Amino acid sequence: MAAYTVHSTAIVDDGAQIGADTRVWHWVHICSQARIGARCSFGQNVFVGNDVIIGDNVKVQNNVSIYDAVTLEDDVFCGPSMVFTNVNNPRSHVSRKNEYRRTVVKRGATIGANATVVCGHTVGEYAFIGAGAVVTRDVLPYALMVGTPAKRIGWMCQCGERLADSIGEHDCDACGQRYDIGGNHCTPL
């Protein structure tokens, strides 16, 4: 198992846990209590806070800040300049560190470029948040979410292709995975 790689401009504070084969690129800062899995990639100008847990094979593109109280499970993709928050009503002159709300992004989810995930919500497994969307509530597994505030407009396959929107059993045109699709669920069969 190979060690992780850190670019010379990056800062990894003592105590940070980083898994094998993870790549930390230009001007990244990883805080001392962060826990990061194997085979992850952190693009230029990424920040990872202390109370952050990141699974294996997570891709974080340029200019993303992962603040305290965020958990990213395995295989999550964070697009360029997407945003996590951790306080609902921030004020510069009022300390609210004891009010952080936990955000969880479940396995395989994708968050598009410039999207925002407001704190205190869960993004379900393999959900797909479109570029520029603003997530203000929990997201169902496999949901395709777009807009401000984000609304579900369909379902996505684990392979990243859009599925049929009608209720019933459907195969993914790209990979053949079969799903049971209902009004408020999409379940692999």
TrEMBL record:
Keywords: Acyltransferase, Transferase. Gene3D superfamilies: Hexapeptide repeat proteins (2.160.10.10). It comes from the Bacteria. The keyword Transferase applies. Pfam families: Hexapep, Hexapep_2. GO terms for molecular function: acyltransferase activity. Belongs to the transferase hexapeptide repeat family. This is Acyltransferase. It comes from Vogesella margarita. The lineage of its organism: Bacteria, Pseudomonadati, Pseudomonadota, Betaproteobacteria, Neisseriales.
